[in-house]
## 1
Amino acid sequence: MPAPVFWTILVLGAVAAGGYLAAVLADPETLMHLKDLGVYQIAGNRVLDGVSVYDSPLLGHTRGVWEFVYTPFAALLFVPLAKLNAPVIVYVGGIGNFLILAVAAWAALALLGYRRDLRLAVFSLPVAALLLWCEPIRQTMAFGQVNILLMALVLVDLALPDSFRGKGALIGIAAGIKLTPAFFVLYLLFSKRYRAALTSVISLAVTLLIGFLVLPHDSKTFWSGAFADPARVGVPQDPSNESLRGMFARTIGVTGGLQLLWLVVAAAIALACLLLARRLSSGGQELLAVTLCGLTTTAVSPYSWVHHWVWLAALLICLLDASLRRWAVSAWVGLVLTFAVASGGVLLLLGFDESSILTFPWDHQEVNRNAYLWLTIVALAVVALRLMKPAQDREAAR
């Protein structure tokens, strides 16, 4: 890594960290309320008290509001949170999530081929600090959500050598906490890492077994249908649902035949992503392949809040790395565009009343709500075109 890049990122990261900390101290109710972490704590208490985490909402009595939507295995992992008092839980949610973000940044940089030494570990901290101004990361930090942890588990797993026998286990654990990372098992299969895929499946099965052994009632409830019950999350047309299904629900609906249409389009996007990811992986572009899979998983998920889109942070790392190459004009354009769409809080520092370009009021709010989705589709299309170009060049040379 060139020294000017290292020191520039280090300085910018320090400024970003200081600005973020100042913003949190000025408005903790917005930037560090940790509502979801508090709900995880309630789930941990219910496990200790022998009360089901699925039979009723964790807070209040309204279906689709504060219901537990993770696996029984996840509920067991939240038990250590149960007895933490208010000051400690804030440190766990704030500092803990940031350190996990730094691990995710380290793994992403390692996948790009950077030497895995102390210098990279140090460099990961300012990179993580800069990513605090990515809105999905910002919201995950604010809610105390698990999304950064899930991304870190996947990235660290895929950063392991293919020869490592335990490769795939962390992906299985991530899927055992929340089902969506199971998409990466398909990625392992498509990229012909069959042993890692099998390890992922075994690891996931172990989490299921642990859930059934410790929480048999909740496991039966969850796996017999609660995991697929959309009412536990909310109505699909909710403006906060930034997935493909949310866009369909708000524009044309997802009942009857339209539900099938959504499923077909989602499956087509997922298949296209896996085919592209296989090409990228075989060409040594592992991080971009993994990032596209993460973004696609969020896009085709039935329900995706803004804090589920943490893979935009990995996309920013990909684009930042690509922009360091000489004459990388297209990478710079992609970096600026992605940061403009994904950033949060930056505009407030510049004196604007809105924290993001997506929060400005205008007549086409549906475009704003689907911005991450369209950005994902554009990324898939750009990668597809770039992968097609060498084949076209070879054909023209004949």
## 2
Amino acid sequence: MFTIEHEFDASVITLVDEGQSPLREDVTVQAFDSEVTFEQWDPRTDKVARITLSPEQLRDLTAALNLPEGIYRSAPK
């Protein structure tokens, strides 16, 4: 399951793990013009883990999810 909310300066997507146990904490994705941030609560450290990607990194990640093993270079835009 996931939710999408459009705020003033970002689109916020929350991914909820509904799979089989062990379930993971929800993941929040905040998409801004200049960056995309992924956040997830880590119960081991009692902190939110955060990863920030550039739009280009997100584009490469999206492409990589659909490619076979190998080394690739995306074309600059």
